[in-house]
Request: fold
Amino acid sequence: MRTSAPIGRQAMAFVLAGGRGSRLLELTDRRAKPAVYFGGKMRIIDFALSNALNSGIRRVGVATQYKAHSLIGHLTRGWNFFRAGSNETFDIMPASQRVSEDQWYAGTADAVFQNIDIIRDRAPKYMVILAGDHIYKMDYEIMLQQHADSGSDVTVGCLEVAREEASAFGVMHVDANDRIIDFVEKPADPPAMPGKPDKALASMGIYVFEMNFLFEQLERDAADPHSSRDFGKDIIPYLVKHGKAIAHHFSDSCVQAGDADAAYWRDVGTVDAYWEANIDLTDIVPDLDLFDKEWPIWTDGAVTPPAKFVHDEDLRRGMAVSSVVSGGCIISGAYVKRSMLSTGVRINSYCDVENAVILPYVEIGRSTRLRNVVIDRGVKIPGGLIVGEDATLDAGRFRRTEKGVCLITQTMIDKLK
Reply:
């Protein structure tokens, strides 16, 4: 039976945000994947953090490791509103050799293990372990309540995927009561779901434990010289075999746009996937609703002026169609279509920009034509540059993906001179 107080108030969310995300290529040269910009003004990690906050969780820890400066700066600026007097805490936990002088975080489980003393001081009853690098909206309160009601040792967040795509995930085989009877990491032949032969149940990297039980498992795992110190490779398979592991279906707790047909979850781990997920937000009714006041995505509230559109002449008219334009942008006599413009972008006269994902503070020179691009933060595009019309030329100058999207950084631009 549900207790009177929201169960989220008894929980702590621990966000694993130390991964590089190397498949995003140069986008993660200077920042970890969770710190990559998304949706105009947000970072990828804001989705997991906002889900926790909106679910009533007021104790949060974030473990960082790879190139964490950008991420830590964002967290310090945008997530500093928790109130200690109301039993709210927000802890940034960089890998800092707290266990030994030569040991950074060896894996996802080790990142939690090395911070046991801090977590114990926060005294939650439940721990919600989250990946910090996916785009989705989810009410963790529902998953927490399932865990409390089921009496399971661990509850694992699961997503239905096509069987032919499931080899990229940790895949669960469940019985009719959603008890996990097998867990296989990236199997060549994924087990099908009961009654759904074309679907497999993939792990979302979301786990719920009782705190004391989790600490027992982490200490046991740390003493095992053969362990890789990872939840997906070690902790979860052990509990599937020796304990009670229950699957939680994402469809039961996802927060969807009104007319969405399916639960929205994206791993924007490649340049193509990242570009596509951003461009999808320019649809009239996108599957991911960023305008939902009931489930807002919190982020750094940077102080910027409004977006501005100037000039109204033939061939020099500042306008954007089917686009998302963030604060501080200036569209000066340029035409923008189906594009995502982050904070502070300036596009100068006579430019034609379409299907572009442009990160903050990019400046695009006059008479530029851009199609199907991702432009990194702070890049200065020289006037007259044409991208997206000659595949061979593009591939020789920029990172061009299999789907024809060009990733452009300042280093690449500098080599054109």
